[in-house]
Amino acid sequence: MENKKSERVRTLTRTDIEAKLEDKLTGKKLTHKLIVDSFIESLREMVMEADPVIRIEIRDFGVFEVKKTKAKPKARNINTGEFIYVPESRKVHFKPGKVLKEFLRKK
């Protein structure tokens, strides 16, 4: 039987995000809106380029991961009660970093 341990997922870090942003912002007048929009667009592109899984780690903030979901051959439609097949797909998962976790745990 094949070893089911997951193989090493490609991890993108702050340096990769900086490089992607630098490509987008080269030669443009920098404004706050442009920087924020470029950052969000860069993250979105990295998630969409995941083949099939990826991990984007931003230290002291958190980790975005694209993960595979398993197919569900016996899922139930809540409205009709009939069994339906749900194919496998991918999802985005966010895990907050240490600093965020500690802040959220405070009362």
Description:
With 107 residues, the chain is an alpha+beta fold. It has a single domain (11-105), classed as Irregular (HU Protein, Chain A), CATH 4.10.520.10. The protein is 35% helix and 30% strand. The strands form 2 sheets. It has a 4-stranded mixed sheet with strand order 1-2-3-6. A hairpin with a 3-residue loop joins strand 2 and strand 3. The longest helix is centred in the middle third of the chain and has 17 residues, at 32-48. The termini are far apart.
What secondary-structure arrangement, pairings included, does this model have?
Elements: E1 11-12, H1 14-25, H2 32-48, E2 54-58, E3 62-69, E4 72-76, E5 83-86, E6 89-96, H3 98-105
Parallel strand pairs: 1-2
Antiparallel strand pairs: 2-3, 3-6, 4-5
Helix pairs in contact: 1-2
Spell out the key features of this protein.
single chain, 107 residues, alpha+beta, HU Protein, Chain A, two-stranded antiparallel ribbon, 6 strands
> Which percent range describes the beta-strand content?
25-35%
Count up the helices. Answer: 3
Unreliable stretches: none
The CATH class, by name, is: Few Secondary Structures
Q: Examine the secondary-structure arrangement and name the CATH architecture.
A: Irregular
Give a short overview.
This protein is α+β, with helices and mostly antiparallel strands and 107 residues long. It is built from 3 helices and 6 strands. The radius of gyration is 19 Å and the shape is extended.
